Amino acid sequence: MASSEAFTQYIAEQFSDAGTITYKKMFGEYGLYCNGKYFASVCDDQLFVKITAAGSKIVPDQETASSYPGAKPQFLISELDNKELLCKLATATCEALPAPKPKKSKNQKL
Fold first, then answer.
1. What strand order describes the sheet that includes 29-34?
2. Residue 109: its pLDDT value, please?
3. E strand or H helix at 67, and its extent?
4. Is the whole model's pTM more than 0.85, yes or no?
5. Mean pLDDT of 9-18
6. Which residues does 87 contact at the CB level (< 8 Å), separation at least 6?
7. Taking all residues of the chain, what is their mean pLDDT, rounded to a whole number?
8. At 49, which CATH number?
9. InterPro entries annotated for this entry (predicted)?
């Protein structure tokens, strides 16, 4: 089941105090970005956040799951109405993640 854009928009609004939140549709689901860094996904109308040491300190007993078969485990966030906690988690997670790799131009050879 694909995620709804309305649900994804709600999640993006919940994260809005953490920075510039954007989302992109990917394979019927959505990837979430904070200040240009991919940090979470919405799959089957569920929120998954990348696991980092910093994030683990904020949600130490958080359930983990894979967003699709074969994917790395991520935090499965069920408490979606706690905007303060979500923003704190997003900020800590994004600070711990490396900067996005620059995109190769279409004319650049591999």
1. 21-26, 29-34, 37-43, 46-49, 73-77, 64-66
2. 60
3. none
4. yes
5. 97
6. 14, 15, 16, 17, 18
7. 92
8. 3.30.1460.30
9. TfoX_N
The answer to whether 43 touches 3, Cβ cutoff 8 Å, is yes
**What does the DSSP 8-state code read for residue 18?**
G
Using a 10 angstrom Cβ sphere, with 0-12 exposed, 13-18 middle and 19 or more buried, the burial of residue 83 is: middle
- Rounded Cα–Cα distance for residues 25 and 23 (Å): 7
Report the DSSP beta bridge partners of residue 42.
Answer: 30, 47
Q: How many domains does the chain have?
A: 1
104 burial type by CB count under 10 A (0-12 exposed, 13-18 middle, 19+ buried): exposed
Q: What is the pLDDT of residues 39-78, one digit of tens each?
A: 999 999 999 999 999 999 999 999 999 998 999 999 999 9
Residue at 43 is within a domain: yes
104 within some domain: no
Q: What is the domain range of residue 83? A: 5-96
CA 56 to mean position of chain CA atoms: 14
15: Cβ contacts below 8 Å, ≥ 6 apart: 21, 32, 34, 40, 86, 87, 90
